């Protein structure tokens, strides 16, 4: 019987270290072959965005699965402003249309996964009490891979060329400074 290992990684606003941020960065930077991220809220800070771009430019196959329609237009806009650079780097962005997507997971090279309550945004990384699990378990990894494959059958890929051709109002979001890392947005409780 396969004995897996699970490491808990809690974090919150009173934590001395940004454990979940470091865990996400380490996972992305460790990847040699593949990264599959599933998150309902994708608003990476500059460090996480740079890590994803670096992984893609290193030749790692990076797939991002996000909801086609989010429950917050502001969060969607803030996240989509990253799509141009990610698509240019070769990241595959898939929008899930099969209902509510609330899974928060990262699979790395089919060797381990990060799974838990943390969204890919600064609110989760710095303001909320969150729990991540670092999972080394073959059975879990196989089940997560099947889940990702199931999600992909209910996704629409974002094509880089079509993304460039979207209407001007769609391009405004890229130029906007709206970000979950903005203190004004955080303090006003909008995200």
TrEMBL record:
Entry-linked InterPro entries: PLD-like_dom, PLipase_D/transphosphatidylase
Domain PLD phosphodiesterase: 97-124
SMART domains: PLDc
One GO term describing the cellular component: membrane
One GO molecular-function entry: cardiolipin synthase activity
GO biological process: one example: cardiolipin biosynthetic process
PANTHER family: CARDIOLIPIN SYNTHASE, PHOSPHOLIPASE D
The protein's name: Cardiolipin synthetase
């Amino acid at each position: 019987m396969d004995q897996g290992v699970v490491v808990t990684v809690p974090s919150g606003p009173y934590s001395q270290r940004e454990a979940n941020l470091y865990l996400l960065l380490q996972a992305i930077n460790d990847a040699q072959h593949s990264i599959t991220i599933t998150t309902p809220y994708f608003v990476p800070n500059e460090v996480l965005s740079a890590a994803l771009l670096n992984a893609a430019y290193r030749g790692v196959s990076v797939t991002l699965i996000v909801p086609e329609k989010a429950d917050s237009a502001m969060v969607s806009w803030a996240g989509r402003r990253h799509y141009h650079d990610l698509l240019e780097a070769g990241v595959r962005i898939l929008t899930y249309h099969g209902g509510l997507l609330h899974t928060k997971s990262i699979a790395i090279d089919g060797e381990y996964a990060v799974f838990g309550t943390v969204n890919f945004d600064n609110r989760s990384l710095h303001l909320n009490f969150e729990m991540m699990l670092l999972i080394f378990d073959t059975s879990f990894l196989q089940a997560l891979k099947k889940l990702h494959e199931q999600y992909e059958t209910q996704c629409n890929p974002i094509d880089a060329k079509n993304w460039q051709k979207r209407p001007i109002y769609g391009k405004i979001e890229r130029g906007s400074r709206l970000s979950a890392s903005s203190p004004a947005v955080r303090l006003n409780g909008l995200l």
